[in-house]
Amino acid sequence: MKVKSICIVGGGSSGWMMAYALYKKTPEIQVTLIESPDIKVIGVGESTIPYTTRFIEEYLGFDEKEWMKYCNATYKASIKFNNFKKSKESIYHPFWSQEEASVEGYTWAVKKRLSPDTTISDYYSKHYLTYHMSEATKFEKVEGLSHAHHMDAEKFGTFCKEKLLEIDALRYIQDTVVSVDTEGEGIKSIKTSGGLEISEDLFVDCTGFSAILIGKSCKEPFLSTEDTLLNNRAVACRVPYTTESKARELEPFTDCTALSSGWAWNTPLWDRVGTGYVYSSKFLSAEKAEEEFRDYLSSRFSEDRIQQLEVGHIKFRGGSYESTWVGNCVSLVLASGFVEPLESTGLALAAFQIKSFISSLTADHTFNSLARQVHNTKVRDAMSEVHEFVFLHYISTDREDTEYWKFISNEQKVPEPLLSRITTGGSEGSKGSVSWFQEKSWECILLGFEVPGQYTSNLTYNGILIDGAHRDSEAILNDIEEYLAPTEAAYIEKVSTLTSSYQYLKDNIYDSDN
């Protein structure tokens, strides 16, 4: 099929990202974007991973200082998980350099096996510079070291929008879609409340959880993941900084803290902290969730600061449509599906879908059934791996202090594909055409959450089977420490020279802004 025109239904971060990407990569295609003035935009997330950063810089070509300042963005070096495995324990998913990626955690796993009292913080301390940055609330861009961002996702959509409207790069319509006329598997035309009838070669569904095109009109089957990822609600708000708190609270990591029936996030932007509680309605009512969330905020930020804050309640369903490209209808996160935001993958998945779709078009902007099916397989595999990776953060918990955690600890079923990944070694056991998370990411979580498998049993060191106490234990431990300690010392020295995350942002992005 030849694509001369595309209509994007819905704005938000994903819709405007798609529009800008089409302008950059396929400027010959005529693009229309319809955005309803009556629908409140829900961004796909304020916390990102390095994939998103690379997409913005390399694919969209935006200058970091310009877009960060517009979107109140900050730098992010890692994700921190508190109280998931057990109370008062923190586990990290740090970002890394290629040099760090080449140092396997298997050696450290041998140390842990021989010295069970060794804490997981020792692993992070000896393998990741970003761990030390996070612990010290410091940051600096280091050549070769991956980083990500916290951002106002709604503002990022507006940033793309203003760039496009400034150069008159698309047809922009503010109106509400009221009906969709389908033909075969695809869409023939859409009608708006203003009386417009729009018929294009291809339609992109960016209508969020409503999924007006892919779900309600194309009637594509939805595959739920709520049997494994239980959370399906969120309550959220924005917490302004005080003059005294900003430098301290502007942490270079996303903080995730497990609560009674889910977890709370904190994403520090330049102008405020975005925070919310993702929970399961099977174990907690909306009223009780808001009460618990406010108690959490009071303990974290003080009661005075949160008393007058308004909170919003969000309903979502975990899972994805069986195919995210049906006929001439392509859908993007959130309309294509959603995995809870524990690993900050929302914007990254949208970016991945955009790149996959645009690469599906040939040089003369045509596509066929094969291209569509390849895209669907790639997206399906990516969504599946994100789902399984996030699930890992729960399934090895030692907590049984609430009904939610007791259920996960004792009754939760593990998806068969995840069992295969664990037993075959993380990303090496991935199915399909994509491995979304690199081996190092799997290593961080498998070690941090002590998932049974390659890092906990049948360990060998220089040909010696390590099974608990060994006659050569002391010599092996000394050998391992001699190998790992210099890197840790270098990290500590490097971080001692850095300024705070707040000061680095102030000096390099926000200049003289307060």
Radius of gyration, in angstroms, nearest whole number? 24 Å
Strand order of the largest sheet: 5-4-14-15-16-13-17
Helix count equals 19
Q: Care to count the β-strands?
A: 23
Task: Please state the overall shape, judged from the principal axes of the Cα atoms.
Answer: globular
User: What percentage of the residues does DSSP assign to strands (E)?
Assistant: 15-25%
The first-level CATH class name of the domain at 5-73 and 151-221 and 318-383? Alpha Beta
CATH topology of the domain at 5-73 and 151-221 and 318-383: FAD/NAD(P)-binding domain
CATH A-level architecture of the domain at 5-73 and 151-221 and 318-383: 3-Layer(bba) Sandwich
What does the average pLDDT come to? 93
Can you tell me the CATH superfamily of the domain at 5-73 and 151-221 and 318-383? FAD/NAD(P)-binding domain
Helix content: 25-40%
Describe the structure in your own words.
With 514 residues, the chain is of the alpha+beta class. The protein is globular, with a radius of gyration of 24 Å. The strands form six sheets. The protein has a seven-stranded mixed β-sheet. It has a six-stranded mixed β-sheet with strand order 7-2-1-11-20-19. It has a three-stranded antiparallel β-sheet with strand order 8-9-10, with no helix packed on it. Helix content is 40%, strand content 20%. The model is unreliable at 427-434 (pLDDT under 50). Among the domains are: 5-73 and 151-221 and 318-383, FAD/NAD(P)-binding domain; 233-315, 2-Layer Sandwich (D-Amino Acid Oxidase, Chain A, domain 2). The protein is built from 19 helices and 23 strands. Helix 7 (129-136) packs across helix 18 (473-496).
